[in-house]
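User: Hey, quick favor. My workstation is busy. Could you predict this chain's structure for me?
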Amino acid sequence: MTEERFTTPYPGYDVLEKWRTPSWNDQTRAVIAKRLHEVPPRRFFTELQWATLEAVCHRVVPQPERLHPVPIAPWIDAKLHKGQGSGTRYAGLPRDRDCWRRGMDAIEAEAQHRFRRSYHELDQAEQDIILHAMKEDEVGAPNWKDLPAKKFMRHVLLREIVAIYYAHPAAWSEIGFGGPASPRGYVRMGFNRRDPWEAQEEQTELAVRKVVGR
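Assistant: No problem, here it is.
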């Protein structure tokens, strides 16, 4: 996978400028403030599982242009620690907590199987080899025996990482999203229409943030 610097089509747009506008009420501001300033500590994963997850997040959603990358692993850890989930479970996959722990252990085992080093110690190209192997169900470590790598990759790992990334205001700004417009709401919902308080696209070509395996 080649690295490409992401360029937003909304340069200069900052969703946080809505902070004191009618777009957001106190409840909305409280939720967003928590997302920005109360990043949870590690409580669910082991230290090695955490290191693996953080390395995976950096490869799935690379953020080389950010001085302060959007935190992803802490919020996955927090949800699992609290037992929060979507209420769904894919056939052939274990329950959420077991699935994530076994998944991180399997990625680490795959790194040791292929490169004799921990996943978080590999270079980016080696890390991507493992992610692509998972995507194609071409893994070799025995830890994957009862955990379908492709299904875990597609339905658990990628889905959660991308969802948490795009729940952060920094991600909203780069795609021109105004966030939860409460209480103002969105009015002009027709094609190619926008409310005056929404972001104005300033580039004709959208630079898409690449996500491994999508």
